[in-house]
Amino acid sequence: MGEIKKGLLAVSFGTSVNATREKTIDAIETDLKGAFPEYTLYRAWTSKMIIKKLKKRDNIWIDTVAEAMERMIADGITEVVVQPTHVINGIENDQMIAEALAYQDHFASICFGAPLLTSEEDSCAVIKAVMAEFGSLSKEEALVFMGHGTTHYANSIYAALDYKFKDMGYPNVFLGTVEAYPSMETLMKLVHAYGAKRVTLAPFMVVAGDHALNDMSGEDPDSWRNQFESSGFMVSCVLKGLGEYQGIRNLYIKHAQDAL
User: Using an 8 Å Cβ cutoff, are 16 and 53 in contact?
Assistant: First the structure.
């Protein structure tokens, strides 16, 4: 029996905004490293576009999933745990699993931790972690989260989670997406119907990257901030990615532990 060498691969979509990466992806990886001291930590990103951009702009090299698997093979890793920092079990996660499994013959074992929102238990834990940061909402204030959204059927988790916020006693918390349902139009109707005077916008994404800086809080007339302001609300923006919340990082660690 050869030597057992353990590798932990943290897989993220990635971000080109370095300031948010340090507070989110880097922080998640640091916590994972602390929770699994006997594992060597590796990083891979799934966005080829962002990988390319960082290489060109900052001369920073980030592995794709395939490159990270090759690196682990070269390092003699025998047991692999893959923990994605993805929010849902969407297209990115499906592709990542397929890419990693193409290398399974090279390892004694390979297992996968779940993305952030996988079980009912996860939904409760995520809401608790997030609302620990926004505990003091007044009655006339709506907290609106911007998720990414996807064409994948897993997108239904966003509407379900919006409902779950209300179920857990937060009638003035709303969750929508940039690219799918619930859309900005839906949110606008719901926030008006609730009767809020003020709106706080926050990203429901691991990083507070381009979507948070542009689509959510940007100067463009179509940004969520401008649309809510044009509709008569006082708006403030919280540029804090989910990866900055300790409770969220703990959940990723729990998912990696559950995988084992």
Answer: yes
Residue type, 77: I
pLDDT of residue 136: 80
Overall fold of domain 6-116+245-259: Rossmann fold (3.40.50)
- pLDDT tens across 140-151, in order? 999 999 999 999
Architecture of domain 134-239: 3-Layer(aba) Sandwich (3.40)
Measured between alpha carbons, how far is 147 from 88 in angstroms, rounded to an integer?
A: 10
Out of 86, 148, 211, 255, pick the active-site residue.
148
Tell me how crowded residue 193 is: count the other CB atoms within 10 A of its CB: 8
Q: Read out DSSP for 125-164?
A: HHHHHHHTTSTT--TTEEEEEEE---SSGGGHHHHHHHHH
pTM: 0.94
The shares of helix, strand and coil residues in the chain, as percent rounded to the nearest 5, are: 45, 15, 35
148 is catalytic: yes
